[in-house]
Amino acid sequence: MAKTIQVTLTKSVIGASPKQRKTIQALGLRKLNDTVECANNESVQGMLNKVSHLVTVQDN
After folding, report:
1. What is the pLDDT along the chain (60 residues), one digit of tens a residue?
2. Is the pTM of this model over 0.70?
3. Distances (CA, A) of 24 to 1, 5, 11, 36, 57
4. 3-class SS at 4?
5. What's domain 4-59's superfamily in CATH?
6. For the chain, what are the domain ranges?
């Protein structure tokens, strides 16, 4: 079974670059304090590195 992580949008995307907004959208986050479960793989880790200042990550 693949490991999953919980990603929560903790900061607003107002003022973020368009690329960062698309990354947040691709992670499945829409509103502030939205939480999603994502697979813990290299592609998701790369996305999280780009928006690390906007999200909080917890291991499951």
Report:
1. 679 999 999 999 999 999 999 999 999 999 999 999 999 999 999 999 999 999 999 998
2. yes
3. 25, 15, 11, 11, 13
4. strand
5. Ribosomal protein L30/L7 (3.30.1390.20)
6. 4-59
